[in-house]
Amino acid sequence: MPRGPRLDTPGTLHHVIVWGIERRPIFKSERDREDFVARLGQVVGEGQASCFAWVLIPNHAHILLRTGVTPLSKMMRRVLTGYAVSLNLRHQRSGHLFQNRYKSIVCEEDSYLLELIRYIHLNLIRAGLVKSMKGLDRYPWSGHSVLMGYESRPWQATEEVLSYFGRGQGVARKKYWQFIFEGLSMGRREELMGGTKRQAGEERDRESERRIDSRIPGSGRFAEQLLAEEEREIQQRALIKRRRVEVEELVGVISKEFGVNREQIIGRSQRQTASRARSVFCYLGSRKLGLTGRELAQALSLSPAAVHYAVVRGESFLQQNKNVGKRLLYVPAASNQDFTA
Q1: 179, 196, 213: which is the final residue of a domain?
Q2: Entry pTM
Q3: Within a domain: residue 260?
Q4: What are phi and psi of 218, to 5 degrees?
Q5: Is 60 helix (H, G, I), strand (E, B) or coil?
Q6: For the segment 198-222, what is each residue's pLDDT rounded down to a tens digit?
Q7: Kindly report the CA angle at 106 between 104 and 110, in degrees rounded to 5?
């Protein structure tokens, strides 16, 4: 079954799971763990993301973060690729380190943030790496020890997490610890590993259920909203790509007609022929391709006012030279419509 595209818009909460190939260890030493955490901290800081929970298990890792200005795919590529190269050199090994691509589960933050923080940090006890809450508190390769104040990771969103449990740091830590402790009896929770659930009052809808994505734990409404946002982004990217192609095609046609090159049209050449070609480009770009004055100004490094006058000149030229318009497959009609840059 083909893999689905990444669901990633800024501000999205992701539960990321990274496995070693064939479930083999990906952390062989303390230096390995520090290397991985340092890389994670760097991309979180530079990408203005918020990391709420993380844990390193010998053969896999869990990370819970909210994306910022950098897409999750770019962040994880930097972490995983850099870490794999570094580990291979350090341990004189070759070949792939990670199992395919990482797993990313998009989560409904209001409903799942705290539950995921608890679930991720308790992985250490479930895996038998620590035997008690005391051991968990001091385990250095987990966000829990940071929240409890035993480790310092400035890039982790410690204050934001503790704010859910109280104003004072001491009181908040005690309530957070109790919250984690109460999760010991809950065991493995499948609803935190992908899939959606229908909230009370949501009607069954086969088409909606067909579109509900296993990458999105949360209500059906949340999943539908997220998928709709993803669809809008895909359409917007397709529109931008198509627009770029159309612009380049228009530049090519105008270049051939006026005997100038692309740089003379897009640049600031003051030659009369180049200036005339640029004016025609502005007019046809605005009328035929629907480019805004701001888009044209940005593409040509001109002021909005200069673009406005270029559009007017281009329209006037094509009105007076209809044969040129025909060769450009466009015959402009007289228009009194104002162009707003």
Answers
A1: 196
A2: 0.59
A3: yes
A4: 155, -175
A5: strand
A6: 333 434 444 433 343 444 454 455 4
A7: 145
